[in-house]
Amino acid sequence: MEIFGMILIGIGAAFLLIGSIGIYRMPDVYNRIQAGTKCTTLGSFLTIIGVGVVQPDWFWKTLIIALFVLVSNPVSSHALGRASRKKRISLYDKSVVDKTDEFTGQQK
Amino acid sequence: MEIIAGILVLLMIASAIAAASFQDLMNAVIASCIVSLLAALLFYLLQAPDVAMAEAAIGAALVTGIFVIAVKRTKRFEE
Amino acid sequence: MRKLISIILLGMVATGLFMSISQIPFGEPGERIGDHFINQGVNETGATNIVAAVVVSYRGFDTLGEVSVLFTAAMGLGAVIGLVRRKKTHTPIEPASLIVYTGCRFLFPVILLVGTYIVIHGHLTPGGGFQGGAVIASAFLLMYLGCRGKRIRENLSRGLESLGGLLFILLGVTGLVIGRDFLFSFLPEGEAGNLISAGIIPLIYMAVGLKVGSELTGIIDHLIEDTDELPE
Predict the structure, then answer these.
(1) Which of C142, C2, C128 is nearest to C55 (CA)?
(2) Residue A107 domain-assigned (yes or no)
(3) Which of A105, B37, C81, C219 has the smallest number of CB atoms closer than 10 Å to its CB?
(4) What's the farthest any 2 CA atoms get from each other in chain A?
């Protein structure tokens, strides 16, 4: 059981590492938010659940914390991305498609 | 343990200097929020969870929110 | 010139702080009254969280002063905001997106529950009235930001705040009547570690949590009140 928890923590840490590399490598705000959100959500979820598996007394508490992270992290990232879109922070110049304006019906 | 505490203190000093030197006050507010968050972590490492909880709730959440509202009601850029 | 003076002043403050603090051994157990609290605190008060025992039981009167400092600050802020009320411009506020709205409505009761848990378990685990009250107020801050237009009624927050303060003082005076001094713990200590134990510490923490939470919510409410109409 402990080995299983350790494996979970290891996978989570690997995802967090990939996420931080992504934040460093990606060219503009939106790509960075994407890298940051997806990897850190799964990474912290797995890490916290892994701690709960290693210490079975804490399992239900860690499950609640993990669910909280699972909800709050994507919502806050969505708010960040929408706010930066509203402020017209420009996209990466090699971006191919941008459907925000036709989707929200706004003039540029 | 001491290495982690040292790294946290260095990061706190860097964030505090950044908060003092930003021209855009919104960035300065976020930097001071980082100072509070790191301080909460440091309190927890030094085995003061009560203070850490208060610092995280008041310093990182409420004060940041109040400062953001205050900046929005006044001027955003320092002259 | 101003910078030079401020740097010199900061240097003087830092030297003074260093000289006064460097004498105290850092992180070592004290030998005076702290030992008594650590060794006898659980027996005397029944609270397993020694910090709660010190804040509410041994130094309960100081906590009353602390709470009234917060009250004075909130009142001063309300007065200042009331003086400089500007004319409203009635530009429509842009609502938050559906995801943020739903997420805030989902997270709000969860954060509220965590705050209440922290307040109620103040005498057992780290936390207590101030921390829990701040968490509750941050839940209301999230609600104000995510769901624009939703408001707590001002009378309700003021009433809860007065109720908290009144409860604190009533508990103190009851101790004065029944026992020997202000905030005397007139309830049985019970078994240390149970939820219902430690005399009046949980009751006082509930009063403090109610007061701090509604006060900070009131501050946020005052500040955000006419920010809704964006400045032109």
Answers:
(1) C128
(2) no
(3) A105
(4) 57
Do residues C130 and B50 make contact, with C-beta atoms less than 8 angstroms apart? no
**Of the candidates A53, A48, A60, A49, the residue with the CA atom closest to the CA atom of residue A1:** A53
Of B50, B65, B66, the CB nearest to C131: B50
CA distance A28 to A95: 10
Q: Which value does ipTM take for this structure? A: 0.84
Chain B to chain C, count of Cβ pairs less than 8 Å apart?
47
Total number of domains in chain A: 1
C-alpha distance from A82 to closest chain C C-alpha (Å): 8
Q: Is A54 part of a structural domain of the chain?
A: yes
In this structure, is residue A103 part of a structural domain? Answer: no
Q: How confident is the model at residue A103 (pLDDT cuts 50, 70, 90)?
A: low
What are the pLDDT digits (tens) for B21-31?
888 888 899 99
What are the domain boundaries of chain B?
A: 2-73
Q: Is B16 an interface residue toward C (CB < 8 Å)?
A: no
Residue that wins the pLDDT comparison between C129 and B34: B34
Query: Is residue A19 situated within a structural domain?
Result: yes
Q: Using the predicted structure, report yes or no on whether residue C228 has a pLDDT greater than 80.
A: no
- Interface test with chain C among A72, A73, A82, by most C beta carbons within 10 Å: A72
DSSP labels, C71-101: HHHHHHHHHHHHHTPPPP--PPPPPPPHHHH
pTM of the model: 0.80
Question: What is the spatial distance between Cα A44 and Cα A55, in angstroms, rounded to a whole number?
Answer: 17
pLDDT tens digits, residue range A47-94?
999 998 888 888 888 888 888 888 888 888 888 888 888 777 777 777
